[in-house]
Hints:
The protein is 40% helix and 16% strand. By secondary structure, it is α+β, with helices and mostly antiparallel strands.
Amino acid sequence: MQKEFITYKHPLELTEEQMLNRSVEFSDLMKRRRTVRTFSSKEVSVEIIKNCINAAASSPSGANRQPWHFVVVSDPILKKKIRIAAEAEEEEFYNNKAPIEWLDALLPLGTNKHKPFLETAPYLIVMFEKKYEEDSYGKIVKNYYTKESVGIAAGILITALHNAGLSTLTHTPAPMNFLNAILDRPKNEKPFLILVTGYSEVNCSVPKINRKNLDEISTFR
């Protein structure tokens, strides 16, 4: 069935100078974004989280299938269950699964199997990738480019939360199918990531890192 088309006009009408200024300001804002691992338990308005998820939901997706589902977890009991399950997977990773090269790469960042932030932070936003849908007749309807679509939405969500003044941590224990059981999600949804969200702790420290410069990451032809 042919979709109806409407006229699109960008909501911002800016001069080139304004565009340049906004691009510089946004670049500077995002350069200050860092992943943190020590969170404050200070409460965050759920309305902020809802607005940021709405921003993420504006993401492009394969055939506009919007193959994502966001589960916002603030219940301390659920957060504890997630931490216990995640730390079990992480212990297996650090002790048995991870190659030495990977552990050496992680060493300067100070990561380990202990994940207290899963309980401390006010919110865990668990993103699920919907591989397919079922219509009202039980027929399987495939979604397209699901991993790419959900990945783009995750990037927008991280950006929106940073823009709102919150800190984040992407956490991906492997495997993550324990999240389906804990959060009662259907089999057509695959856990994509846990986005730990809240205020960073007072005097929070992060590794001193360097980011690659523009010449290293881009080519203009």
